[in-house]
Design brief:
Blueprint: H1 21-34, E1 41-42, E2 58-60, H2 66-71, H3 80-100, H4 108-131, H5 138-157, H6 161-167, H7 173-192
Antiparallel strand pairs: 1-2
Helix pairs in contact: 3-4, 4-5, 5-7
Keywords: Membrane, Metal-binding, Transmembrane, Transmembrane helix, Zinc
Family: Belongs to the ADIPOR family.
Main location: membrane
């Protein structure tokens, strides 16, 4: 009696008997995720307020809603590098900086200032680059740009407050607080200037 034929498999096997179809499927999913949609636009097709870089000619996301902006995290377009280089530091700062800060009662406020000052510019810029192509008009774009600038202001004011406090630490009580309050008022003045 002849042996029965062995059924064919869709993926190749290795010595352990596992198939590579799982890895092929994974590669297809990664390729699909990194392949931008066909409706990416050129620079000339963008609204006037988004035509600020004439050297990047292709790869622009069309105007879209919040869901579309969030889904653009998963494909390559003209803002991908900006989004990633601002998003990765947020995760890194939040994962590492809190463990290094003195959270005792006397230093808790300064630790929060340092943490917020460290992460604020990255958050503002991440949100700006991710949502800059919202379909809600030019006004929303400029609000996002202001949010980006606010993150920088927070970094420069709150982020520097621990350094200012350390600088005047040995001064007498009234002079120390006069200088800290003066610095804070100058920061607020700079925000509204």
């Amino acid at each position: 009696m002849a042996p029965e034929p062995v059924p064919a498999t869709t993926g190749s096997s290795d010595a352990s008997g596992t198939t590579s179809s799982g890895s092929t499927t994974l590669l297809k999913q990664v390729h699909r995720m990194l392949t931008p949609p066909a409706d990416l636009l050129e620079w000339k097709d963008m609204p006037q307020h988004l035509q600020f870089n004439p050297y990047v000619l292709t790869g622009y996301r069309p105007l879209q809603g919040v869901k579309g902006c969030l889904s653009s995290l998963f494909y390559v377009h003209n803002e991908t590098i900006n989004i990633l280089t601002h998003g990765i530091p947020i995760v890194y700062i939040l994962a590492t900086v809190p463990a290094m800060m003195p959270w005792e009662k006397d230093y808790r406020f300064l630790s929060w200032c340092h943490l917020v000052g460290s992460v604020a510019p990255w958050c503002g810029s991440f949100v700006y680059h991710l949502f800059m192509n919202l379909d809600n008009g030019e006004g929303i774009y400029y609000r996002l740009l202001q949010l980006d600038m606010l993150g920088i202001w927070i970094s420069q004011s709150f982020g520097a407050l621990p350094m200012v406090t350390a600088t005047v630490y040995c001064l007498n009580f009234p002079l120390k607080w006069l200088l800290i309050i003066s610095y804070s008022l100058l920061c607020i003045w700079g925000l509204f200037k």
